[in-house]
Amino acid sequence: MKFVVQRVKQAQVDVEGKTVGKIDNGFLVLIGITHTDTKEIADYLIKKLVNLRVFEDDNGKMNLALNDVKGELLLVSQFTLYADCSSGNRPSFTDAAKPDVANELYEYIINECKKKINKVETGIFGAEMKVSLINDGPVTIILEK
Question: Which of 25, 28, 127, 132 has a CB 3.0–4.6 Å from the CB of 11, allowing a cystine?
Answer without folding.
Answer: 28
